Amino acid sequence: MFGKSLLFTCLFIYIYTYSLCVDAERFINEVVLDEKYDFILKWKLDEQNIIFEMSAVTSGYVAIGFSPNGGMPGSDIVVGWVKNGKAFISDRHATAYAKPEADTSQDYTLLYGREEGGRTTIGFSRALKTCDDKDNVLNDDTMRIIWAVNNLDPEDYDDLSYHGSSRGVRSVLLTAAIENRVELPHDAEYFEMFMPNVTVSSDRDTTYWCASFAVPIFERPVHIVLAETIVQKGHEYLVHHLIMYGCKGTNTSWSSRCNSERMPPDLQACDRMMYGWAIGGGPLVLPEHVGISLGRKSDPTVIFIEMHYDNPALSPDFHDNSGVRLYYTPTLRQYEADVWALGENVTPLQSIPPNETSFKTFGVCFSNCTKKVLQEDIKLMLVMLHSHIAARKISLQQYRNGKLIADLAIDDNYDFNLQENRYLKPEKIIKAGDDLVVTCTYNTVGRTYITTGGQSTKNEMCLAYLLYYPRQTLAGSCLSNPSLQAYFEAFNIPAGSCEAEACLDTLASSVDPETLRQGLYDVSYKGKRLDICVDTDFEQVDGVPYPEEFPVWFSENDRMEDTNDVCSEPNNSPSSSVTLRAASSTIAALILIVSWSLTL
After folding, report:
1. 157, 208, 521, 525: which one is catalytic?
2. Which of 57, 278, 295, 403 yields a CA-CA distance of 20 to 30 A from 100?
């Protein structure tokens, strides 16, 4: 009897231990940090903790750091290696471009490590927020992951050889990222649409090219379940972003500059946004209960793609065939989803003074608009924040009756080169009468001119694209921008004396810097705003005031209190180590015990 009890106890211990090891390796996110070293970073969330695996082609150490700006100073760094079959890990921080210092509090837990076939792999975990001021908080902000490898193992914890040129950086969303492993429905099919070998302009840095495509004829209605952008190899930094629209029409093979006067009328009216992508972004994956409809009488027959090319070097060598692949299923899902654009209307009336470190502009979706366009509560699944190269922070916040109720999406470390979809878990509810505010913070240090809203990457945007359900036919865009009257009042300009761009040109050359800054501050923070509340046909919705006063209830520093803003107790033990042989010996001992118990 004792033998059987011991047997079951040992089996339970073994199964439980093994399940922990297996679970630690069941990662749902993965990114290649470097192709030369095949440096792969995997991770998954576990409540208030995050589990990582870093792996690279090296027989020495591997290291990653969580950096605020892509450099070493201020980075939270973890180094791992395997020596003589034993794995080691070290929690460190950098204060300069020099060897990072070991933390007094070691807050990274080593889970496993191995060196096989010239590849070193280290698994470890940490709290999203530790109690160590040398560790950076991991949250929904864009994180710059710095990495390094070296072919030498450290002799001890104080010995860390310089990595030389074997280093790099990549921006990643850690906590708001989509799961990499996507399982398509068994009956999923796809169709593709590619730009027709577009010759990208070499006489300007920004080109907007538009092309139309026919929606396939389906035997019955289908739901789009996944959309991905296919970027032509070598054009990763040329293709800046694209927007895919749907509409009714007959012109299904038109291609030209987006501002062409020859654009057919049905394409000029093609304004229902269905999908958006920007540089660094991944695919749009719809949850299992929602899809975007095609094939019904009321659905689009034409897909219209607006592609933004960014060619700052004015290279004449680009001929582009990038495009979009749409996966669909005939098995209709419970809800139909749609995209809703919020933020600041793209116009020169969005204006940012030169040499500012943190100037803010705002796009307000007023309650007067949401009352009209939302016929029922909607559920928000995903947000993509979009701005250009001067942006440093972007947020989307939800107000109800003048009170902040949710920070729907916040990125205090925005990276122009990573504009990824942010998946909300759980989904958020938006009601008719809610106000939604997009806030963008810009750094224009070194610029001598007013930065205005516009299409070029040297201009700015301040937008949020929301994927929600169920679809609301009146919800096309909910935008706002300062009125020209606000400029007249801020700078004592006679009303109607100039147009927006002419006014700004005059101000930039005739007003001293402090007066210019204060005036543009008053315009952005206080002035009357034009409420752009349009339906999916881009028609202004009836009954919405135009313009509106800047909301008195809004405060630029509003943030929800984080109920999970807790940190774990520091682990002041020495740097952890795990012996692989010891793990093997433990399993072997368990087997011996089991064998012995069977003889009892």
Report:
1. 208
2. 57
